[in-house]
Protein backbone atom coordinates (compact mmCIF):
# COMPACT_ATOMS: atom_id res chain seq x y z
CA UNK A 1 0.00 0.00 0.00
CA UNK A 2 1.18 3.53 -0.70
CA UNK A 3 -0.14 6.94 0.31
CA UNK A 4 0.67 10.43 -0.91
CA UNK A 5 -0.89 13.86 -0.31
CA UNK A 6 -2.63 15.60 -3.18
CA UNK A 7 -1.49 19.02 -4.25
CA UNK A 8 -3.05 21.94 -2.40
CA UNK A 9 -5.72 23.38 -4.62
CA UNK A 10 -6.65 26.34 -2.46
CA UNK A 11 -10.36 26.79 -1.74
CA UNK A 12 -11.17 23.54 -3.51
CA UNK A 13 -9.05 21.52 -1.09
CA UNK A 14 -11.36 18.51 -0.93
CA UNK A 15 -12.58 18.67 -4.52
CA UNK A 16 -12.66 15.18 -6.01
CA UNK A 17 -11.71 13.49 -2.71
CA UNK A 18 -13.98 11.04 -0.90
CA UNK A 19 -14.66 12.48 2.54
CA UNK A 20 -14.64 9.72 5.17
CA UNK A 21 -17.42 9.93 7.76
CA UNK A 22 -17.94 6.22 8.38
CA UNK A 23 -15.93 3.00 7.91
CA UNK A 24 -15.43 2.00 4.29
CA UNK A 25 -13.50 -0.62 2.33
CA UNK A 26 -11.16 0.39 -0.47
CA UNK A 27 -11.19 -2.30 -3.16
CA UNK A 28 -7.99 -4.06 -4.13
CA UNK A 29 -5.98 -2.66 -7.07
CA UNK A 30 -7.64 0.74 -6.88
CA UNK A 31 -6.61 4.29 -6.07
CA UNK A 32 -8.80 6.83 -4.30
CA UNK A 33 -8.22 10.34 -3.00
CA UNK A 34 -9.70 10.53 0.50
CA UNK A 35 -10.13 13.21 3.12
CA UNK A 36 -11.10 12.99 6.79
CA UNK A 37 -11.21 15.74 9.40
CA UNK A 38 -9.98 13.29 12.06
CA UNK A 39 -7.21 10.67 12.04
CA UNK A 40 -8.07 7.37 10.35
CA UNK A 41 -6.99 3.78 10.87
CA UNK A 42 -6.00 1.73 7.82
CA UNK A 43 -6.56 -2.02 8.28
CA UNK A 44 -4.61 -4.28 5.96
CA UNK A 45 -4.78 -8.11 5.88
CA UNK A 46 -2.42 -9.73 8.42
CA UNK A 47 -1.03 -6.41 9.62
CA UNK A 48 -1.51 -4.07 12.54
CA UNK A 49 -3.71 -0.99 11.85
CA UNK A 50 -1.87 2.09 10.58
CA UNK A 51 -2.89 5.47 12.01
CA UNK A 52 -2.87 8.29 9.48
CA UNK A 53 -3.80 11.98 9.60
CA UNK A 54 -3.42 14.64 6.92
CA UNK A 55 -4.78 18.15 6.62
CA UNK A 56 -4.94 17.66 2.85
CA UNK A 57 -6.58 14.89 0.83
CA UNK A 58 -4.35 11.89 0.21
CA UNK A 59 -4.27 9.19 -2.44
CA UNK A 60 -4.31 5.58 -1.24
CA UNK A 61 -3.18 2.83 -3.59
CA UNK A 62 -3.40 -0.76 -2.40
CA UNK A 63 -2.88 -4.21 -3.85
CA UNK A 64 -5.21 -5.71 -1.22
CA UNK A 65 -8.53 -4.45 0.19
CA UNK A 66 -8.05 -1.71 2.79
CA UNK A 67 -10.57 -1.12 5.57
CA UNK A 68 -10.63 2.57 6.56
CA UNK A 69 -12.03 3.60 9.95
CA UNK A 70 -12.31 7.17 11.30
CA UNK A 71 -11.08 7.45 14.88
CA UNK A 72 -13.84 9.84 15.99
CA UNK A 73 -17.65 9.65 15.63
CA UNK A 74 -19.19 11.60 12.72
CA UNK A 75 -20.21 15.16 13.44
CA UNK A 76 -23.49 17.09 12.94
CA UNK A 77 -22.93 17.50 9.19
CA UNK A 78 -22.96 13.74 8.69
CA UNK A 79 -25.94 13.28 11.05
CA UNK A 80 -27.97 15.88 9.16
CA UNK A 81 -27.26 14.19 5.82
CA UNK A 82 -28.00 10.74 7.22
CA UNK A 83 -31.39 11.84 8.55
CA UNK A 84 -32.44 12.88 5.03
CA UNK A 85 -32.01 9.35 3.66
CA UNK A 86 -34.93 6.95 3.34
CA UNK A 87 -35.08 3.97 5.70
CA UNK A 88 -34.54 1.59 2.76
CA UNK A 89 -31.37 3.40 1.66
CA UNK A 90 -30.01 3.46 5.21
CA UNK A 91 -30.42 -0.31 5.47
CA UNK A 92 -28.80 -0.85 2.06
CA UNK A 93 -25.78 1.25 3.02
CA UNK A 94 -25.27 -0.58 6.31
CA UNK A 95 -25.79 -4.00 4.77
CA UNK A 96 -23.12 -3.25 2.18
CA UNK A 97 -20.62 -2.65 4.99
CA UNK A 98 -21.79 -5.10 7.66
CA UNK A 99 -22.73 -8.28 5.80
CA UNK A 100 -19.48 -10.21 5.41
CA UNK A 101 -18.57 -12.45 2.49
CA UNK A 102 -17.57 -15.25 4.88
CA UNK A 103 -19.09 -16.92 7.91
CA UNK A 104 -17.99 -15.49 11.24
CA UNK A 105 -15.65 -18.15 12.59
CA UNK A 106 -16.16 -19.54 16.05
CA UNK A 107 -12.55 -18.76 16.96
CA UNK A 108 -12.65 -15.20 15.61
CA UNK A 109 -15.97 -13.69 16.74
CA UNK A 110 -14.34 -10.92 18.76
CA UNK A 111 -12.05 -10.03 15.84
CA UNK A 112 -14.89 -9.84 13.30
CA UNK A 113 -17.19 -7.94 15.67
CA UNK A 114 -14.50 -5.40 16.56
CA UNK A 115 -13.46 -4.96 12.94
CA UNK A 116 -16.88 -4.73 11.29
CA UNK A 117 -19.46 -3.73 13.91
CA UNK A 118 -17.85 -1.64 16.65
CA UNK A 119 -17.19 1.48 14.53
CA UNK A 120 -20.93 1.76 13.79
CA UNK A 121 -21.85 1.43 17.46
CA UNK A 122 -19.96 4.68 18.06
CA UNK A 123 -22.12 6.63 15.63
CA UNK A 124 -25.67 7.87 16.14
CA UNK A 125 -28.11 5.83 18.29
CA UNK A 126 -30.14 5.01 15.17
CA UNK A 127 -27.11 3.73 13.28
CA UNK A 128 -25.95 1.71 16.28
CA UNK A 129 -29.34 0.00 16.58
CA UNK A 130 -29.64 -0.75 12.86
CA UNK A 131 -26.04 -1.93 12.65
CA UNK A 132 -26.44 -4.44 15.47
CA UNK A 133 -29.67 -5.82 13.99
CA UNK A 134 -28.17 -6.15 10.49
CA UNK A 135 -24.87 -7.63 11.64
CA UNK A 136 -26.39 -10.41 13.74
CA UNK A 137 -29.40 -11.17 11.55
CA UNK A 138 -27.75 -11.14 8.11
CA UNK A 139 -24.38 -12.80 8.77
CA UNK A 140 -23.75 -16.52 9.25
CA UNK A 141 -22.21 -17.52 12.59
CA UNK A 142 -20.05 -20.60 12.86
CA UNK A 143 -20.55 -22.99 15.77
CA UNK A 144 -17.57 -25.22 16.50
CA UNK A 145 -17.95 -28.74 17.86
CA UNK A 146 -14.45 -29.88 18.73
CA UNK A 147 -12.64 -32.48 20.81
CA UNK A 148 -10.91 -31.18 23.96
CA UNK A 149 -7.94 -33.05 25.36
CA UNK A 150 -6.44 -31.99 28.68
CA UNK A 151 -4.22 -33.73 31.27
CA UNK A 152 -6.34 -32.16 34.01
CA UNK A 153 -9.79 -33.27 32.86
CA UNK A 154 -11.59 -36.01 30.99
CA UNK A 155 -11.70 -35.84 27.22
CA UNK A 156 -14.91 -34.26 26.00
CA UNK A 157 -16.63 -32.70 23.00
CA UNK A 158 -17.05 -28.96 23.39
CA UNK A 159 -19.61 -26.74 21.68
CA UNK A 160 -18.51 -23.16 21.09
CA UNK A 161 -21.35 -20.83 20.14
CA UNK A 162 -22.10 -17.07 20.18
CA UNK A 163 -22.84 -15.56 23.58
CA UNK A 164 -26.47 -15.71 24.67
CA UNK A 165 -27.35 -11.95 24.45
CA UNK A 166 -27.08 -12.10 20.66
CA UNK A 167 -28.57 -15.52 19.97
CA UNK A 168 -32.07 -14.04 19.95
CA UNK A 169 -31.46 -12.18 16.67
CA UNK A 170 -29.08 -14.60 14.89
CA UNK A 171 -30.83 -16.17 11.89
CA UNK A 172 -28.11 -18.24 10.22
CA UNK A 173 -25.67 -20.65 11.84
CA UNK A 174 -23.00 -22.96 10.45
CA UNK A 175 -22.10 -26.04 12.49
CA UNK A 176 -18.59 -27.37 11.92
CA UNK A 177 -17.67 -30.83 13.19
CA UNK A 178 -15.64 -33.92 12.32
CA UNK A 179 -17.04 -36.93 10.49
CA UNK A 180 -16.49 -39.32 13.40
CA UNK A 181 -18.80 -41.38 15.64
CA UNK A 182 -18.36 -39.34 18.81
CA UNK A 183 -19.86 -35.99 17.63
CA UNK A 184 -23.05 -37.69 16.54
CA UNK A 185 -23.75 -38.64 20.14
CA UNK A 186 -24.25 -34.92 20.77
CA UNK A 187 -26.26 -34.16 17.64
CA UNK A 188 -29.67 -34.95 19.19
CA UNK A 189 -28.91 -32.27 21.79
CA UNK A 190 -28.04 -29.87 18.98
CA UNK A 191 -31.53 -30.32 17.59
CA UNK A 192 -32.86 -29.28 21.01
CA UNK A 193 -30.29 -26.48 21.04
CA UNK A 194 -32.26 -24.76 18.28
CA UNK A 195 -34.48 -23.22 20.95
CA UNK A 196 -31.49 -21.10 21.96
CA UNK A 197 -31.84 -19.32 18.59
CA UNK A 198 -35.51 -18.25 18.48
CA UNK A 199 -35.02 -16.24 15.24
CA UNK A 200 -33.09 -19.01 13.46
CA UNK A 201 -33.98 -19.42 9.78
CA UNK A 202 -31.21 -21.63 8.37
CA UNK A 203 -28.59 -24.11 9.61
CA UNK A 204 -25.64 -25.42 7.61
CA UNK A 205 -23.96 -28.58 8.95
CA UNK A 206 -20.46 -29.25 7.65
CA UNK A 207 -18.77 -32.54 8.50
CA UNK A 208 -15.03 -32.48 7.86
CA UNK A 209 -13.06 -35.64 7.26
CA UNK A 210 -9.90 -35.59 9.35
CA UNK A 211 -6.60 -35.60 7.48
CA UNK A 212 -5.52 -38.51 9.70
CA UNK A 213 -7.77 -40.84 7.69
CA UNK A 214 -6.75 -42.23 4.33
CA UNK A 215 -9.39 -43.20 1.79
CA UNK A 216 -9.33 -46.88 2.76
CA UNK A 217 -9.75 -46.16 6.48
CA UNK A 218 -12.56 -43.74 5.73
CA UNK A 219 -14.27 -46.35 3.58
CA UNK A 220 -14.20 -48.75 6.54
CA UNK A 221 -15.65 -46.04 8.78
CA UNK A 222 -18.47 -45.53 6.29
CA UNK A 223 -19.10 -49.26 6.30
CA UNK A 224 -19.46 -49.17 10.08
CA UNK A 225 -21.78 -46.18 9.76
CA UNK A 226 -23.95 -47.82 7.14
CA UNK A 227 -27.40 -49.12 8.03
CA UNK A 228 -26.47 -52.61 6.77
CA UNK A 229 -23.98 -53.38 9.52
CA UNK A 230 -25.37 -51.38 12.41
CA UNK A 231 -21.96 -51.37 14.16
CA UNK A 232 -22.23 -47.65 14.80
CA UNK A 233 -25.70 -46.44 15.69
CA UNK A 234 -26.49 -43.00 14.32
CA UNK A 235 -29.39 -41.26 16.07
CA UNK A 236 -31.99 -39.53 13.94
CA UNK A 237 -31.86 -35.77 14.07
CA UNK A 238 -34.68 -33.47 13.02
CA UNK A 239 -34.13 -29.76 12.65
CA UNK A 240 -37.13 -27.44 12.55
CA UNK A 241 -35.53 -25.04 10.08
CA UNK A 242 -34.37 -25.14 6.47
CA UNK A 243 -30.84 -26.44 6.24
CA UNK A 244 -27.91 -27.59 4.21
CA UNK A 245 -25.66 -30.61 4.75
CA UNK A 246 -22.14 -31.02 3.36
CA UNK A 247 -19.15 -33.31 3.75
CA UNK A 248 -15.77 -31.75 3.05
CA UNK A 249 -12.32 -33.32 2.85
CA UNK A 250 -8.88 -32.98 1.39
CA UNK A 251 -7.48 -34.86 -1.58
CA UNK A 252 -6.87 -37.85 0.71
CA UNK A 253 -10.57 -38.83 0.34
CA UNK A 254 -12.07 -39.91 -2.98
CA UNK A 255 -15.19 -38.15 -4.37
CA UNK A 256 -17.00 -41.52 -4.28
CA UNK A 257 -16.46 -41.95 -0.52
CA UNK A 258 -17.36 -38.33 0.14
CA UNK A 259 -20.63 -38.88 -1.74
CA UNK A 260 -21.31 -42.08 0.27
CA UNK A 261 -20.74 -40.13 3.50
CA UNK A 262 -23.23 -37.46 2.47
CA UNK A 263 -25.85 -40.08 1.55
CA UNK A 264 -25.47 -41.78 4.95
CA UNK A 265 -25.88 -38.49 6.80
CA UNK A 266 -28.95 -37.52 4.77
CA UNK A 267 -30.68 -40.66 6.00
CA UNK A 268 -30.24 -39.51 9.59
CA UNK A 269 -30.35 -35.71 9.45
CA UNK A 270 -33.47 -33.96 8.18
CA UNK A 271 -34.45 -30.32 7.89
CA UNK A 272 -37.75 -28.50 7.49
CA UNK A 273 -36.91 -27.87 3.83
CA UNK A 274 -35.10 -29.85 1.16
CA UNK A 275 -31.54 -30.66 2.11
CA UNK A 276 -28.92 -29.32 -0.24
CA UNK A 277 -25.57 -31.05 -0.57
CA UNK A 278 -22.58 -31.02 -2.87
Question: How does the SSE layout of this entry go?
Answer:
Elements: E1 2-5, E2 18-19, E3 24-26, E4 30-35, E5 40-43, E6 50-52, E7 58-62, E8 66-70, H1 76-83, H2 87-98, H3 109-121, H4 125-138, E9 140-150, E10 153-160, H5 164-167, E11 172-178, H6 181-184, H7 187-193, E12 202-208, H8 215-225, E13 237-238, E14 243-248, H9 255-268, E15 269-270
Parallel strand pairs: 2-4, 9-11, 11-12, 12-14, 13-15
Antiparallel strand pairs: 1-7, 3-8, 4-7, 5-6, 5-8, 9-10
Helix pairs in contact: 2-4, 8-9
Any overview of this molecule?
About 20% of the residues are buried. The strands form 4 sheets. A 5-stranded mixed sheet has the order 10-9-11-12-14. It is built from 9 helices and 15 strands. The chain has helices at about 75-85, 85-100, 110-120, 125-140, 165, 180-185, 185-195, 215-225, 255-270, and strands at about 1-5, 20, 25, 30-35, 40-45, 50, 60, 65-70, 140-150, 155-160, 170-180, 200-210, 235-240, 245-250, 270. The longest helix is centred in the middle third of the chain and has 14 residues, at about 125-140. It folds into 2 domains: about 1-70; about 140-270, no CATH class. Helix 2 packs across helix 4 and helix 8 packs parallel to helix 9 (about 255-270). By secondary structure, it is an alpha/beta fold.
Amino acid sequence: MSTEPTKNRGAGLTDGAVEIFAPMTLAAHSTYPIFCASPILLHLPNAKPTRLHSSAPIYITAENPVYIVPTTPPGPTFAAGWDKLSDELKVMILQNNLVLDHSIRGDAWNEDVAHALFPYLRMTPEIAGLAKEIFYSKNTFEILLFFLRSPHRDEEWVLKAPSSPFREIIRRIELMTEFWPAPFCIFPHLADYQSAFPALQHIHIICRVTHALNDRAFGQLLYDFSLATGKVKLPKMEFAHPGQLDVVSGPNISPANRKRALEILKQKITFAAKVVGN
